[in-house]
# Entry
Amino acid sequence: MTHTRAYIINIALCLGVLFVASCGKQHTAEQTVKNFVAENMKEGVETKRLDFGDLGTTRHINDSLVAKMRKNGAELFKNDIAYGKVPTGEVYYLRMKYLHEGDTLQNTFYLDSELKEVIAFK
# Structure
C-alpha cells in the first residue's frame, strides 16, 4: 500500500469515528429534550412533528441569562420547572421546531455538558 493511500484511509477512518460520535451526541440531546418537553408541557398541550436542528455549543450563557430564561419560560410550558445545574464552560444547545394547533413554534434548549439535563430554554 502506498503512503498516500494509507494516509487517505486513516483520514477517512478518523472522520467516520467523529461522525458516529457526533451522531450519538445529537441523539442523546434530542432524547433529553423530548423527555423534558413531555414532562414540562402544560397538561392537554399536544405537539406534532418534532424537528431538531444541529446540536451546537456556546460559551455565551451565564447565570443571569439562565435566570432570565428560567423566569420567562414559554407559554405552553409549566411555570415551576426543575432544571439541571448550570455548568461552567461550554453549554450545548438544541433548537426544536414543532407544530401546535396549526402554528409552527420553536424553542432553543440549553443542556449540561453531559447532555442529561436541560438547564434553561427560550
